[in-house]
Every structure is written in C-alpha cells, then in structure tokens.
Amino acid sequence: MFETFWFALPIWMQDLLVFLALLAPLFIAGLICLRGYRITPLLVGLLRRHRMISLTFMALIATSVAISASLIAQERGLRAGTARAAEKFDLVVAAPGSEITAMLAAVYLQPSALALVDGDTYIKIATHELVSLAAPLAFGDSWNGAPVVGTTDAFIEHLGDGLSTGRMFATIDEAIAGAAVDLSIGDKIAPVHGDGSAGAVDEHGFEYEIVGTLPATGSPWDKAILVPVESVWDVHNLPNGHGSDWDGTLGAPFAPEHFPGTPAVLVRAEALWANYALQSEFNTDPNTMAFFPGSVLAQLHALMGDIRQLMSVLAVTTQVLVAIAVLSGLAMLSKLLSRRLALLRALGAPRRFILALNWGFATVLIVIGAGIGLVLGIGATAILSAMITQRTNVLVTAHLGWPELHIVAGFVSFVAILSFIPAYAASRRPITEDLRT
Amino acid sequence: MRIAYLAAFLLSTTAVYADDHKHEEHAEQGSHLAELGEVHLLHAWAPASEGGDVLVFMEIENEGHETVTLLGAHAHIAAKVELVGFELKDGHGHYEPLPKLPIAAGAHMTLAPNGVAFQLSGVSEHLHQGDEFALHIEFAAGEIEMMVQVEAAGATQHSHAGHNH
After folding, report:
1. Structure confidence by residue, pLDDT tens digits, A189-207
2. Would you tell me which residues 115-154 of chain A have a C-beta closer than 8 angstroms to some C-beta of chain B?
3. Residue ranges making up the domain that contains B98
C-alpha cells in the first residue's frame, strides 16, 4: 500500500519528503526543548559576546560540509559528463580484444594500440541492411597534443550535428577543427606521428588546411582535429581505401582490397532494436567485437557505485568528527560561561531553560554553519568542475542536488541531537560552586 | 587376480558415478536450458528483489539458418513484461522498450544488465535468491516457457554463466 503510494509520487516530491524526514528530528527536538521559552534575546547576546568563537565553529562546520558536498556532487557530475560524451557513439565495432581499451580509444581518444578491422569486414559492416552510418575512426597522429583522427564527412555531421563555421573537407589536405582546438579557418597544420609526448617528433611532411570547425560536444573530441581517413592512410604509405581509378571523392564507398584497416568503426542504425541486432551479429563474427560504449560505461559506473557509497560514508564521518570537535569546544565554552549560567539559575531560571539555551546555541552554530557550507559547496563544485573539464576534456557540469541536501540534513539532525549531551551537562552543574568561581 | 578384481570394482563404481553425474547434468540442463527449434535459450536469471520492476536476462543462441525474431514475453508473476534495451540519454542510462529483436542465423544474443532485458513490471511476489519462476518467451515462430533462476540482489550474471550446455 505505502510502496504503491510512494512510487506514484514524482521523484522531486520523494526527494523533498526524504529531506524533510531527515530534518524532522531537529524540529521535533527543537519543539520539545524550546517549548515555553523565549531564548532568542539571550542567544543573540551569547553569539555577540562570543563572536570570534562562534564564527570559528561555524567556519569549521561550513568547510567540512562544503568539501563533502562538492566532492560527492563532483563524482555525480563526472559520471554524467562521461556518459554524455559517449552518447553519440551508438555502437563501436573493433577487432576482438578489450572493450574498455577500445572504448577509451574511440570515445575518449586515449592513445591505445588496437588491432585493425580489415577491408572485407568493414565492407560487411558498412553494407549491412540495418546500418545507416558506418564510419572508420583512424587514430595515431597528433598536432600540438591534439589528436588527429581520420574519418568520413558522415561521422563529422553525426558528431556535431553539422559544423559551426566553414565547410566540410573536400580534398585530402583539408581538415575540421574541434571546438576547443586553437585553430581558425585558413590555418595550416603539420601533424606528427603519435601523441607527441615522447619528445621525438616524427613529422609526416604533410600539411592540412582548416576549412571548418565543429560546435562544442562536451567530449574529448572537442580537442581533436578531424581529417579525411584517406589522408591518414596516405601519409603512412598505405593504400588510401580506393582503387587506382579513384576520382578523389572522399569517403564511402571503399574498395575492400585497397582498405588498409581501421582500429574502430562507428556504427549507427536508425532504431535501438536494430543497434542491438547488429551488436549480436558482429559479436558472433570471430573477426569483430561490437559494444555499446554506454553499456561499458554503465558497468564501470556500477563498479564506481561502491566508491560513491564509500565517499558518502567518509564525507559524513568527516562532518561528524568536525561536529564532535565543535561540541567539545562548546562544552569547554559552557564551563567558561558557568558563572553566568549559575547566576541565571540563582535568579530562578529552571534547569531546562539552561539546557534549552545551551542546545539552542550549539544548534544555531550547526545550522548556520551547514547553510554557509552548502553555499560554499556550490562555488567549490563549480571550481572543481572547471578543473576536471580542463584536465579531461570531458565537460563536467556538476551542481549540488538532493543527495547532498539529504546528507547535510541528516548531519544537521544527528549533530543537533548529539548536542544535547554538552547542553545537559551544562544544565546539571552545581550553582553554588559555579557562583563562587 | 586380486588386482584385477580391484580394478574391475573401481571401473564399475566409476561408471556408476559417471552415469549419476550425467543424470544430474541433465536435470540441471533441464532448468537452465530451453529450446524452440534450433533456438537455444540458456541461463535465464533475475536479481533478487522485493517485487515491483524486475529485469530478466538470458543467453539466446540461434543455431538455425534463418533469422528469428524475439517479440516479448509474459509471466504470471508480473502485470506486464516488455522487451527493453539500455540507452544513454542526457548523461543518464535508462531502458527503452524494443518492439522486436531479430537474431541473425548463427548469432548469439546475450541479454545482460545495461543491455537488452525483459522488464517485468508490477511483480507481485518477493523474489529470493534460489527461487525460480516461469517466463513465457514469444518469438515470431512460437512461444516457449523457461524457468528463471533468482540470483543475489547485486548479481551481474547467472551463477552458471560460462558453462557450456
């Protein structure tokens, strides 16, 4: 009955209710503890008098909340960013081997040594009745650290849903620059063999002219330079995929006997069912391995799921440790305040009032500290996202969401309940002794 | 002579053991294997669950000479069964319904997490590890019943995956 009701609710409503349920102990404790008392004037006085200590405690809580929340949000952002970067890669066909290695090479452009798909196999893939797009992806060259990838105009159209400026390459010495490559139309580049990191630069003695640029895709392909696949084969002294009677028109159809091989083929069918049918067919073929980058990534993310849980536990533990340190500090502070509190008691304030005042003081620090922590967390998340995007070329747009709010709400409630311990201890202090000190 | 008797005794017990093992294997195969013509269905499994939505996975081998088309399934424990495929959209993975799934002659289709699956909705029972339930799988050429084994809640494959039947 409850399950049916719960799952019928919209997701945002479920999240909101969980958030409120996590805050409920704080509100219930507050209602019981503060019932019948107006502690606000005294509380404000306490906060003013101990401004520096209060600010320090709030800053400690805020920092721990901000770090924890931004780290958890970052992990979620990176997960979504890597998934978005793989969205354009419906099905990748490569020679049998490691799916992860092939995915890292084809989707994230990480240098990898892959076996080649031969001409006959490529033609079989490209001419399959269910295939609407089959594009060779030939890696291995670079310019100024930017990978130079040989492919066809059909793949470029698919990747960027068109160009942002210029036109498609029409001859083998023309190229298209990714959105994050510092090149403009008309610039000329001479690629080198490899990723250029080994120091020794082995130039091919071949120049490309940039004739178009791609819009941003949020993937490492924004850092790539895309060239006709024929030119990649040509500069490596391989057949260019076409026979001797080739008229220079780039792209398909390729002649199997002149096709030197490609490390990966991007395959696309119009419908999802057709992509899965193609995967089973190419996976059964002993010459090929077909995989959905999205599925491989989801498996990796599932492995990372455990890490996320561990991160959440560590984040909460850190917050609780900081909170315990703050509560210990407050316990010491209440000893310093013992004379004033004893005076209140002597004037007729009941023990519960002293308990309410101490608890209120600790809870205000915790709630304000956590609130500031969330605001700081938004800033920290944006900074970390920008750093990760710059380092990985995977667009990470992390932002604080319900999971972080749930953790912070749980933390605030837990520590608020915990702060009854020093508050109770303060309310049980002997009046006479404290007045004498 | 004694050695000969001993050898004969050992051989006879080995034969009995081998026969028993064969029977066990057949019984095991019976629950892990279903056949429709030259289509073999193996290792159907689902993770343990408290009901609601449940995904069922298996291996399908088309050893025939013609394409077979998988259309869907039904089960008495679920209100609805759909053939679904995993897809990434806006950075998040989800399962999309598939109207059909052709399996080419000689091809093997693996229904696995983050891939193709049967999605059972409105499952009325709690599924515990070790339980079994029947799933009726519909092909264009006919229908076949297969027992689905319930594995641990976090399982990623059938406990007998990799065995050849």
Report:
1. 998 887 655 554 566 678 8
2. none
3. 34-151
